[in-house]
Amino acid sequence: MPDPLEPAPPRQIIRNAAWLVAWDEAAQSHRYRRDVDLAVDGDTIAAIGPAGPAEHGDTVEIDGRGFAILPGFVDIHAHPSSEPMLKGLTDEVGSRQLYMSSLYEYLPLFEADAEGRTAATEVALCELMQSGVTTLCDLSAAREDWLDILGASGLRVYAMPMFRSGRWYTPNGHEVRYAWDEKAGRDGLDRALRLIDRARQHPSGRLDGALYPAQVDTCTEELLRDSAAAGRERRLPLQIHAAQSVVEFHEIMRRHGRTPIGWLRQIGVLGDNTIIGHAIFLDHHSWLHWPTRNDLADLAETGTTVAHCPTVFSRRGILLEDFGRYRAAGVNLGIGTDTFPHNFVEELRSAAILARIATGNAHAVTAADIFTAATIGGARALGRGDLGRIAPGAKADFVMVDIAHPAMQPLYDPVRSMVYAAGERAVRHVFVGGQQVVRDGKALAFDYVEASARLAMAQRRAVEKVPGFDWSGRSAGEIMPPTFRFG
Predict the structure, then answer these.
(1) Helical spans, DSSP H, in 69-206
(2) Can you identify the CATH homologous superfamily of domain 11-71+395-443?
(3) How far apart are CA 220 and CA 181, in angstroms?
(4) Which of 285, 414, 443, 487 has the fewest CB within 10 Å, making it most exposed?
(5) In 269-426, where do the E strands start and end?
(6) Residue 454's pLDDT is what?
(7) E-strand spans in 3-144?
(8) According to the model, what pLDDT value does residue 1 have?
């Protein structure tokens, strides 16, 4: 069984941290500090610098020698209750007749049962914490045990219960249709608002919520307008998938005569509390050959954030075009983990490398750009000036990276060594609000091994049901054959 989470001590001092990534408010940039102390009072960072002798008997002192202390990562887009179960199944899928998207033909094939969703969530939360995530946006379908599992994790979580006016399906593998139920969408918004209220009252004290009208093409204009109004009235973030496929781009153009981003701006959904999941197929994307160039400006002028999740799309041969271009246009970017594994550092590495591939330019994006998106960009998307940074007054959400780990050596630059080489292997300890949630590389709230075993059984149950969801009744083995034949 995992170790229980212990309450944060009243005061902690990390002595002589070899490296520390501190936030410089005046420069609006992270800065390296060397051989410094970090003082924490309760759940808040008190000071950076010489801490002096401990004045209180209940002060906990931690030896920071041999560690780099980084701000906790803010993951603004993840589906913990479903994606971990797809490992080994959807790694190499993409509909040839639907512009390589996996959304319409493959995503509806797998339906985890309640036990499977719980196991998947525990697995994902372990992976996220063990890769340095301290704040998470969980985009999931609401279920009975959801908030309690999130609360037990120790993470800072924004619960985003899904609602929509319809669902997509394909009857033949080359055409996308929509089944509509507008009342279900309206009821879903009402339920989401009630669940967000419950999240804010959760005894863990670390849960919040945001609105999640699922996709731009599965929500009516009325539902989106009402969601945007509720978000502004209640000061809630709002996240929606948009510009995530060529199919969707042309569907919204067919319905409204505008790009998905242009239509969302027209109806008042874009804004500084809005996060667009993916926002890949903007009007400048090379796959579209579209004549206008308005979408990036629409995002930048409205202060809308893009949740960039490179891994899942790169598996389909799809790239954002490109991270540096969005950044130069003034678009706020955050990072998400939209697929398995929920390894945030791997996602950072993919984001950096794929941005360079997209432009053919080694200088298109730096580790600093990606790291800032993973911290400050995500915090800004959530309206949280106290997250994603190590600074006095900020929440004590931080990661201790073992710089003596062989994968971190030789050490010239700890952030680059972690992002490009060591990955999550060097993450040793993680703290959220001063409370330790990862010790010696292992999440404390859940048993990762045991949860993975339950997830494996749930995957087997889901695989048996695939023919009932596939448009032509095929089995999982026919749709996604194994790497090598048996025999």
Answers:
(1) 114-130, 146-153, 182-200
(2) Urease, subunit C, domain 1 (2.30.40.10)
(3) 10
(4) 487
(5) 274-278, 305-308, 332-337, 398-402
(6) 97
(7) 11-24, 29-41, 44-48, 59-63, 67-71, 73-78, 133-140
(8) 47
Q: How many CB atoms lie within 10 A of CB 176?
A: 22
Q: Are strands 67-71 and 11-24 parallel, antiparallel or unpaired?
A: parallel
Residue position matching structure tokens 């149950």: 461
Token code pair at residue 262: 């242009």
Q: CA 438, CA 6: separation in Å to the nearest integer? A: 11
Looking at the DSSP bridge assignments, the partners of residue 239 are 275
Mean pLDDT score, 252-265: 98
Q: What digits encode the pLDDT tens for the residues 378-411? A: 999 999 999 999 999 999 999 999 999 999 999 9
Per the rule left: phi > 0, alpha: psi between -120 and 50, beta: everything else, 128 is alpha
Taking alpha carbons only, the member of 156, 228, 260 closest to residue 199 is 156
Give, to the nearest 10 degrees, the angle between helix 114-130 and helix 146-153.
Answer: 20
Tell me, what's the pLDDT at 56?
A: 67
- Structure confidence at residue 3 (pLDDT): 55
Rg (CA), the chain: 22
Instruction: Match 């710089």 to its residue by tokens.
Output: 403
Instruction: Look at residue 238 and tell me whether its pLDDT is greater than 80.
Output: yes
Distances (CA, A) of 63 to 44, 179, 287: 19, 58, 52
Q: Which residues of 114-138 are buried (b: 16+ CB within 10 A; e: fewer)?
A: eebbbbbbbbbbbbbbbbbbbbbbb
Pick the CATH number of 73-381 from 3.40.50.2300, 1.10.540.10, 3.30.420.40, 3.20.20.140: 3.20.20.140
Q: How are beta strands 212-213 and 238-242 bridged, if at all? A: unpaired
Q: Are 19 and 447 in contact (CB under 8 A)?
A: no
Cβ atoms of 310 and 351 within 8 Å: the answer is yes
Residue 196 to residue 204: CA distance in whole angstroms: 14
Determine how many CB atoms are found less than 10 A away from the CB of residue 164: 24
